[in-house]
Design goal:
By secondary structure, this protein is of the alpha/beta class. The protein folds into two domains: about 150 residues, DHBP synthase, CATH 3.90.870.10; about 150 residues, Rossmann fold (3-Layer(aba) Sandwich), CATH 3.40.50. The protein has 16 helices and 14 strands. It has a seven-stranded mixed sheet, with helices on both faces. The protein starts with a helix and ends in a 6-residue tail after the last helix.
Length: about 350
């Protein structure tokens, strides 16, 4: 776990990372690549790097469809493209960039899925330069202080993150609509990411209390953004739990369905250009929903809640929590009327995500 988090942080800093496995790779995130990182990658690579992209982003770069079934696409990048500005233009659909050359398709390396997992854990755009390392790379990698991370650790990360979750702090926090409330903070070992459980009353003593799995939304929860319904869902859930006398709201650090705040703002830019919320995420290289609900299952177990009535409009949450071993005895509708700005957003959730908003 520690190596995974450190490797994700190194990619954010523009530092190459060694991904170990059957055919080890040296990785550099396209979004943060600078002259020093590119020089270090060139020094340790056994051959020219390829750029790993999600299919929808690759199709936009190449201006042609990608073969169906492709999970990851590799592009051969010329020396003209191996510079910070062209790489950002290849990675980020919100950046207007005049590319000096057109990349071509290349063979996808064996550890490509793990390379993109690492970029996503760093909340970076899933666009990564990757190349096989030289056989005699050890001495130079040691001198440069480059980190090694096993591909197997990245595959195991979702389960390990949930298993390593620990309660860190707890305090009574009276809320405006729920004065009898506590907030418990959880952290995964080796990570600075923190998830919160808001307990209204004593849900651990109820047979099947109300529960809501709420992904943090800085724009909606804190700023009152009209683009989504997150803020009203958050406050509405707490008020309803207070009315019943008990409930638990898990406030997960999974902004924008777990793509992060910066990428959510990029998605908003693409929505303003005509894409809906699902296609905007995919255009950035992310899946429709990147959340890990094993975290929620671990938190419910930690607070002593075994059976819940879930406040949600999202059938996927019901299925995901059940798959994680949570006993969901019923769904409680949690829809709010459109506000004139989020009408299309709510319609997309109903039509394309299957949310039950009627």
């Amino acid at each position: 776990m520690r190596a995974v988090h450190r490797a994700a942080a190194d990619l954010r800093r523009g530092t190459p990372v060694l991904l170990t496995g059957e055919v080890p790779l040296i990785l550099l995130a396209a979004e943060t690549a600078g002259p020093r990182g590119l020089a270090e990658l060139a020094m340790l690579a056994a051959e020219p790097p390829v750029l790993l992209l999600a299919p929808m982003r690759a199709a936009a770069v190449l201006h042609r469809p990608i073969e169906q079934g492709s999970a990851i696409v590799a592009l051969a990048v010329t020396s003209e493209l191996l510079a910070p500005e062209p790489l950002r233009g290849l990675a980020d659909p919100t950046v207007e960039a005049l590319l000096p050359a057109q990349p071509e398709l290349a063979e996808v390396p064996q550890l490509a899925p793990e390379a993109l997992i690492l970029a996503k854990l760093g909340r970076l755009l899933p666009a990564v330069l990757a190349a096989p390392v030289r056989p005699d790379v050890d001495a130079d990698a040691e001198r440069l202080g480059l980190l090694r991370v096993p591909a197997s650790d990245l595959k195991a990360y979702p389960v390990a993150a949930a298993a390593g979750l620990r309660q860190i702090a707890s305090a009574r926090v009276p809320l405006e609509n729920a004065p009898d409330s506590r907030v418990m903070a959880f952290r995964t070992e080796g990570s600075a990411i923190e998830h919160l459980a808001i307990l209204v009353g004593h849900p651990e003593t109820a047979e099947a209390p109300l529960a809501r799995i709420h992904s943090e939304c800085f724009t909606g929860d804190l700023l009152g953004s009209l683009r989504c319904d997150c803020g009203v869902q958050l406050r509405g859930a707490i008020a309803r739990m207070a009315e019943e006398g008990a409930g638990v709201l898990l406030y997960l650090a999974q902004e924008g369905r777990n793509i992060g705040l910066v990428n959510k703002l990029r998605a908003y830019t693409l929505q303003d250009r005509g894409l809906d919320t699902l296609d905007a995420n995919r255009a950035l290289g992310w899946g429709a929903d990147e959340r890990n609900f094993l975290i929620a299952a671990s938190m419910l177990e930690a607070v002593g809640v075994k059976r819940i009535r879930l406040l949600t409009n999202n059938p996927y949450k019901l299925a995901a929590l059940a798959a994680c071993g949570v006993e969901v005895v019923g769904r409680e509708a949690h829809a709010f009327a459109p506000n004139g700005v989020n009408d299309h957003y709510l319609a997309t959730k109903a039509e394309r995500f299957g949310h039950l908003l009627d």
